[in-house]
Amino acid sequence: MLDIFLDALIDSLKVFGFSFIIYVILSFFEEKIIHILEKEKKYSPILGATVGLIPQCGVSVVAADLYTKKHITIGTLFAVFFACSDEALPILFSTKESIIYVIPLLLIKFVFGFVIGYLIDYFFSKSKEEKQDLDIIHIGCCHHDLDHSTILFEHFIHPLLHSIKIFIYVFVVNIIFGMTIFWIGEENLISFLSNSKYISPIVCGLVGLIPNCASSVLISELFILGDGIIPFGALVTGLSVNAGLGIVYLIKNKKNIKDVLFLISTLFICSIIVGYIIILIMNLF
Q1: Distance separating alpha carbons of residues 255 and 266, to the nearest angstrom
Q2: How is residue 156 annotated by DSSP?
């Protein structure tokens, strides 16, 4: 149980550090960045997929926060989520056998992330409500009016307070899901996947939905164990669904819940389809 607490604390501190740095940067350049995203919306999904490749679970949280404030489109958020690999890359780099899969993994997640992201934005752009929402610009983290605040508050204290709030929430969620995985047992999950290879993309997709760094770690470890426990396609599915704590952050804010459910279901379905396509192609060769 102590290990669960320490792992949750370490993962949460990583998110805190990343979030704080990002929000400090945004405090100086947020208005410019928002105007660029508004002006260059047609490039947003490809930018989102590029940023999503950064192996840090804080990326999805920051992206989710920007989406709730209507600074990025839902297609851009999808691209970030799909491209995220969380803590998987360090694990895949740990063995010579798995290193060769890193570049194909990143390319697949990047390409499908921004392509599907563009398609989502195209269909959502048909909605007048989405267009109106994207015209609203909120300067300042948490929608606070920073026009009359001090430089210290605007560029340090406010980002710090916001990051602390995220840290607390992330820590609680990490504890809950860490205990859940502990109760299920990694051995039981490995045994199940070994006997269910043809449905492994679906199972890995469900595991990937667990909003915790442990899920991406578990999926990656199952892949590098060898012996065909899970195929490469299942790895892609699990890591494409896994968007860290970004999804939970969206649900927490209780805004545009229909869009959030659409995003989660699309992320899950598209990841499974891509996973099975990869398995089919690899079986042909």
Answers
A1: 18
A2: I
